[in-house]
Amino acid sequence: MLSAFLMLLSSLSVFAQEKSITGKVIDEEGIPIPSVTVSIKGTSTGTVTDFDGMYSILAKAQDTILFSFIGFESQEVLVGDRNIINITLAENTAELEEVVVVGYGTQKRSDVTGSVASVPEERLENLPVTDVTQAIQGTTAGLNITQGSSVPGSSGSIQVRGVNSINGSISPFIVLDGIPFTGTINDINVRDIKSIQVLKDASEVAIYGTRGSNGVILIQTKRGVDGAPQINYRTYTAFEEFANILTPQGPESYAQKYEDYFSQAFPDREQDRILENQSEIDNYNLGRTTKWFEEATQTGIIQEHNLSIRGGNDKVKYFVSGLYLDQEGVIKGYNYKKFTMRSNLDVQITDWLKMGLNAFFANNNFDGGRANLLNATVMSPYSVPLQDNGEYLIFPMAPELLYANPLLGLTTDRYERERTLSGNAFFEIKPQFLEGLSYRMNTSYTLNPYEYRNYEGRAANNNRGIRKHRR
């Protein structure tokens, strides 16, 4: 029995041990394929094949190795007891025939020599996200999205293949429906997007000059289709909580902390008060405590409603959509509301002349006073937020004046709006006497008004009162 148990342990140890797996990846004609991605499924471990199609990777017997390359069918292989795994990849003809948008038109993916990455349309359709950066995060190699803030309505910064400048802009050039985009990424309704192409190679972005030095992101919105009107309504509700919460000190440990401090700072004196500040002592004697973190935070709620209508015939096609987003953050007062409308119209005037009109409006609303989470984390549990008359206490730990009530910001009348109004028209001419020749003229206009107003009075610990206003 003991020997059987030891044999079982030995077999389990061998099964979990990593070993070096080598091999060669070729196509159906026996030609080595370089730059094939070789990765352990379900992990971040991976490598690529060299010029001769050779690779080497550490894996366990129970691991599955995934081989993938653009234009070929991916393959999954269980390692098992093998040390050498050779793979033959078959061409994916459907992917090679796929049409991608590049700076100077469209091409088949098989004809593109530069680096063009596509974001799957299914991802844009189904993910419950509030802006484009969240939808494309982690979708393509070399595209880095950094979420610098979790404030509702904030967008992540986008980098294509790393930082390309020390003190200049590192954001890629965004082109929306063939027109340079000058608004914020928040203005674009994710549900309106048909495709996103990321141009990373110098040959692909050359047409945009220096504006494309940090890469180019091409976004195409949905258009009308032949047939009866298609009405699509989508809605979702989501709840947000803090991912990690530091447990604050309770009342007993807070009082013990002051006792320990006093005994070390004044070893020759007898402690004459339970806490430092008089307001804390009063609340201690009355048994009143406050969980400040819970006072300043809440369960975040996201609600989105999206309605779109599309249809048309062989002469006129249309797409109209509207979006309303309401997001309440996990910190009280951090709210965000967004309303967008879009209209895309295509008219086939003659066999050789086509015109179109794209227009959209976006209103980003950041109104509302905000609680101070930092002050909430340093407040004494033996302090209270409200006076007997129901108004906020300015200094809950009086006579301590260093930290004001973290909820004072909720009394301010804060107004912040960011709007975008954009419209562009195009004419496309395709002479019938010369096949393949087309000429397209675009014209556009964009308006980006911004307004911020805020007043802080005595209730917000500003005895003089201050009004801020900027556009």
Automatic annotation (TrEMBL):
The keyword Thylakoid does not apply. Coiled coil: none annotated. PROSITE patterns: TONB_DEPENDENT_REC_3. Residues 109-216 form the TonB-dependent receptor plug domain. The keyword Transport applies. Keywords: Cell outer membrane, Membrane, Receptor, Signal, Transmembrane, Transmembrane beta strand, Transport. One of its GO terms (cellular component) is cell outer membrane. It is found in: Cell outer membrane. Residues 1-16 form the signal peptide. InterPro entries: Beta-barrel_TonB_sf, CarboxyPept-like_regulatory, Plug_dom, Plug_dom_sf, TonB-dep_OMP_SusC/RagA, TonB-dep_OMP_SusC/RagA_CS, TonB-dep_rcpt-like. It is a multi-pass membrane protein. Belongs to the TonB-dependent receptor family. This is TonB-dependent Receptor Plug domain protein. It comes from Zunongwangia profunda (strain DSM 18752 / CCTCC AB 206139 / SM-A87) (Wangia profunda).
